[in-house]
């Protein structure tokens, strides 16, 4: 249904019937209402179009079409009506103003001629003015141009005055970089960034500078780090030289102090303090030669800084500090130095072969820690005392382990002594730099024991060589000079020998003074190790005495024991060895005095050790005495083995056996040699020989392999025993009381007397009585020999076929033998039951 139109039925629908009257009225009212509303809306739209900008008319016109259907037709009608209305008003206005317009046109035509005239005048005036002002204009433009140039120049000067310091600083920066003054370059960069570049930051070159500076910083860091690496490599190579110099200076200082102390102890010197801090000695107005030599040879004291350029470290430290990366640098430096420390502490595999190997090892370590000490004191915080102490403790443990291992391979005492001296200088050097070295001195005590062991081995060879070269005969002295030469080497004093005219002989052999001298040499050698150990005289005295005791009780004693046991050492040599040990024993007190004089420690001191030489030489002498007894008995056995008795002989030869006479002659000559022995030793040897001879003869009679013995053999054997008794009664060795020596043969004598006299009745009657004539005859011994004699008698009778005569003449003797045998058996059985 279109707005404002009539109602019509829809297409295809039948027409509606006419509405009732009431409905028609209502419909008319509605149509009128809608028409009024439409007219009002169109008025509003027209007013809006008239008062609105043309660009905004579109929405207004769209509302016309968006309204009721066919409304635009009504709007167009309304618009046409409005246009016609405006046209009428325009026409009225034009008609009203037409006459005024015509008058104005007339006036304008009149003015045109005057205007043209005025235009010509103005043009002419302008031409003349332009001609007149052209020169002024040119001058004005020149002035303007100059003023602009002046302003530009002033501005340029002003800007250049701001830029020139920046450029100068940048040029300075380049020069510093070229001259490798990196720390100053960093300071210059800092000034550029904080002061100069901000003033002219609007310029492009400043921006380029600002972008370049971080790159330059990185280059400086890289260059400084490269210099640091070169420095670390350099000090690794120069550590040996640095350590050598430091240890040499420490040794010179120690030598000088020792000289001062020595002169002071003599009370003949007073110290003079020179301007350079070193002390010289003056004695009677003269400077000590040692000190003067040292002054001449050490005019300039070199330090680590003299040998190594530390500027790369300082420079790198300052650079990293300025760059705010100090911690990184410190960590890197410490890490690298720890690695170098481990490399330095690795020894050469053959270091123990020469002292140079040890010296190079110590030089490198000292050089390393001298550098660290210098860095510690020359820089603030790059390394700390805690860090150096940690490094030193790690190094000290490694050093001690290395020295323990390598020193154990040393068999040369001279090399061990040189090692000790190196360790002392090494310890003194590092102690001078503030490092704790107590553990090194503790190690020296371990090495001292090893040094003593090497000395003992060396002196064992010396003693062995002395013993091998000795002739084991008294020392002959032809003149007073020879005598003084001997007693100057060995403390020997004997009033009787001194009274004897020359030539004469000293009781000891040549080995005695040589041994005494070598013991003193050993003490000197042992003392060398004790020097510079910072120990008291009492401790040094104790160490000397202990090492000397080891030499006497172990080395010398062992050599003596081996010497005594050697098969080629005879009785004469053993006798001389006993004499030698006696004199060496007497010389022990002089050795103690010798040690006391060296150490100045009184022997009465509570903790002073005593030398065990007395027991050593006593033991050796006892061993030699025992060996004498053994060899003497062995010699007797050799003679006994030469015995060739005819046990079935009818009668004796009437003289002693040849082997026995040879034996007795041997014993006589041997005991003559014993005159130089102590009386008790000679007496013991003589008694031992006689007892052994008696025992050997008794065993010969009672030998189980010997089945029968004739009375003729008994008689021959008796003659031999008589010679033995005569030898014993001749006092081959003085000092025996009465028949003491003859008692060694008492058992044989009583046994042989019993058989020679055939005194069985007395033996059996007095058996067991203290006053018995045959007290020393054992029933078993008598029974064994009687049975052999009995068998010998029977065998002789059978060979001679005189049974009838035997039965007739010796029946009583045979019965007696049988009776005695029975009684002896009963005694033997009784003894066995009793036992």
TrEMBL record:
<dbReference type="GO" id="GO:0000145">
    <property type="term" value="C:exocyst"/>
</dbReference>
<dbReference type="InterPro" id="IPR042044">
    <property type="entry name" value="EXOC6PINT-1/Sec15/Tip20_C_dom2"/>
</dbReference>
<dbReference type="InterPro" id="IPR046361">
    <property type="entry name" value="EXOC6/Sec15_C"/>
</dbReference>
<dbReference type="Pfam" id="PF20651">
    <property type="entry name" value="EXOC6_Sec15_N"/>
</dbReference>
<dbReference type="GO" id="GO:0006886">
    <property type="term" value="P:intracellular protein transport"/>
</dbReference>
<keyword id="KW-0813">Transport</keyword>
<dbReference type="InterPro" id="IPR007225">
    <property type="entry name" value="EXOC6/Sec15"/>
</dbReference>
<dbReference type="Pfam" id="PF04091">
    <property type="entry name" value="Sec15_C"/>
</dbReference>
<dbReference type="GO" id="GO:0090522">
    <property type="term" value="P:vesicle tethering involved in exocytosis"/>
</dbReference>
<comment type="function">
    <text>Component of the exocyst complex involved in the docking of exocytic vesicles with fusion sites on the plasma membrane.</text>
</comment>
<dbReference type="GO" id="GO:0005886">
    <property type="term" value="C:plasma membrane"/>
</dbReference>
<dbReference type="GO" id="GO:0006893">
    <property type="term" value="P:Golgi to plasma membrane transport"/>
</dbReference>
<feature type="domain" description="Exocyst complex subunit EXOC6/Sec15 C-terminal">
    <location>
        <begin position="440"/>
        <end position="788"/>
    </location>
</feature>
<dbReference type="InterPro" id="IPR048359">
    <property type="entry name" value="EXOC6_Sec15_N"/>
</dbReference>
<keyword id="KW-0268">Exocytosis</keyword>
<feature type="domain" description="Exocyst complex component EXOC6/Sec15 N-terminal">
    <location>
        <begin position="78"/>
        <end position="247"/>
    </location>
</feature>
<dbReference type="InterPro" id="IPR042045">
    <property type="entry name" value="EXOC6/Sec15_C_dom1"/>
</dbReference>
<protein>
    <recommendedName>
        <fullName>Exocyst complex component</fullName>
    </recommendedName>
</protein>
<comment type="similarity">
    <text>Belongs to the SEC15 family.</text>
</comment>
């Amino acid at each position: 249904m279109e707005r404002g139109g009539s109602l019509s039925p829809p297409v295809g629908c039948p027409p509606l019937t006419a509405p009732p009257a009431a409905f028609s009225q209502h419909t008319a009212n509605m149509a009128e209402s809608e028409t009024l509303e439409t007219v009002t809306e169109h008025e509003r739209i027209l007013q809006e179009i008239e008062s609105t900008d043309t660009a905004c008319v579109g929405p207004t016109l769209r509302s016309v079409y968006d309204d009721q259907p066919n409304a635009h037709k009504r709007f167009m009608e309304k618009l046409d009506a409005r246009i016609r209305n405006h046209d009428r008003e325009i026409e009225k206005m034009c008609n009203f103003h037409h006459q005024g317009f015509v008058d104005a046109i007339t006036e304008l035509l009149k003015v045109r001629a005057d205007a043209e005239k005025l235009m010509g005048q103005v043009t002419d005036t302008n031409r003349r003015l332009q001609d007149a002002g052209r020169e002024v204009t040119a001058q004005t433009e020149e002035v303007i141009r100059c003023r602009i140039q002046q302003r530009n120049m002033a501005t340029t000067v002003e800007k250049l005055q701001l830029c020139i310091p920046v450029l100068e600083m940048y040029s300075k920066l380049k020069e510093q970089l070229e001259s490798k003054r990196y720390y100053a370059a960093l300071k210059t960069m800092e000034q550029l960034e904080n002061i100069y570049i901000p003033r002219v930051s609007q310029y492009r070159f400043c921006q380029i500078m600002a972008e370049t500076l971080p790159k330059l910083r990185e280059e400086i860091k890289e260059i400084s780090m490269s210099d640091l690496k070169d420095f670390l490599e350099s000090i690794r190579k120069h550590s040996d030289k640095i350590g050598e110099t430091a240890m040499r200076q420490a040794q010179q200082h120690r030598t000088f102090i020792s000289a001062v102390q020595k002169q002071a102890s003599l009370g003949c010197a007073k110290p003079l303090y020179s301007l350079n801090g070193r002390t010289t000695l003056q004695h009677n107005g003269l400077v000590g030669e040692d000190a003067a030599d040292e002054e001449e040879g050490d005019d300039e004291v070199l330090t680590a800084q003299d040998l190594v350029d530390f500027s790369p470290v300082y420079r790198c430290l300052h650079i990293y500090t300025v760059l705010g990366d100090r911690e990184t640098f410190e960590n890197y430096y410490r890490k690298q130095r720890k690695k170098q420390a481990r490399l330095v502490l690795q020894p050469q595999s053959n270091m123990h072969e020469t002292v140079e190997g040890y010296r190079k090892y110590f030089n490198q370590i000292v050089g390393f820690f001298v550098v660290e000490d210098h860095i510690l004191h020359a820089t603030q915080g790059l390394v700390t005392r805690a860090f150096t102490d940690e490094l030193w403790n790690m190094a000290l443990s490694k050093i001690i382990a290395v020295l323990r291992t390598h020193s154990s391979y040393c068999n040369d005492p001279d090399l061990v002594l040189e090692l000790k001296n190196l360790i002392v200088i090494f310890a003194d050097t590092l102690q001078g730099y503030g490092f704790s070295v107590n553990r090194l001195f503790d190690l020296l005590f371990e090495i001292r024991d090893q040094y003593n062991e090497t000395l003992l081995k060396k002196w064992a060879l010396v003693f062995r060589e002395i013993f091998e070269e000795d002739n084991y005969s008294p020392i002959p002295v032809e003149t007073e000079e020879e005598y003084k030469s001997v007693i100057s080497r060995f403390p020997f004093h004997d009033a009787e020998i001194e009274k004897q005219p020359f030539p004469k002989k000293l009781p000891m052999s040549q080995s005695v003074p040589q041994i005494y001298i070598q013991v003193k040499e050993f003490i000197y050698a042992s003392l060398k190790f004790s020097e510079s150990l910072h120990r008291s005289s009492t401790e040094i005295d104790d160490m000397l005495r202990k090492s000397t005791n080891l030499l006497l009780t172990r080395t010398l004693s062992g050599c003596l024991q081996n010497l005594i046991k050697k098969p080629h050492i005879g009785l004469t040599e053993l006798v001389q060895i006993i004499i030698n040990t006696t004199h060496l024993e007497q010389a022990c007190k002089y050795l103690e005095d010798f040690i006391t004089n060296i150490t100045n420690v009184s022997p009465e001191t509570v903790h002073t050790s005593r030398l065990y030489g007395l027991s050593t030489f006593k033991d050796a002498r006892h061993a030699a005495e025992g060996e004498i007894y053994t060899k003497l008995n062995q010699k007797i056995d050799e003679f006994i083995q030469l015995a060739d008795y005819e046990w079935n002989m009818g009668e004796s030869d009437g003289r002693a056996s040849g082997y026995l006479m040879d034996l007795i002659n041997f014993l006589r000559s041997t005991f003559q040699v014993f005159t130089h022995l102590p009386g008790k030793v000679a007496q013991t040897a003589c008694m031992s020989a006689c007892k052994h001879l008696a025992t050997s003869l008794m065993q010969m009679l009672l030998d189980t392999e010997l089945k029968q013995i004739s009375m003729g053999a008994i008689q021959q054997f008796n003659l031999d025993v008589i010679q033995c008794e005569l030898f014993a009664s001749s006092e081959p060795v003085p000092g025996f009381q009465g028949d003491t020596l003859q008692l060694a043969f008492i058992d044989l004598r009583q046994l042989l007397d019993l058989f020679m006299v055939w005194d069985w009745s007395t033996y059996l009657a007095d058996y067991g009585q203290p006053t018995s004539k045959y007290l020393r005859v054992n029933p078993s011994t008598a029974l064994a020999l009687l049975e052999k004699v009995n068998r010998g008698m029977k065998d002789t009778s059978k060979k001679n076929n005189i049974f009838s005569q035997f039965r007739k003449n010796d029946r009583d003797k045979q019965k007696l033998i049988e009776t005695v045998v029975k009684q002896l058996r009963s005694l033997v059985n009784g003894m066995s039951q009793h036992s």
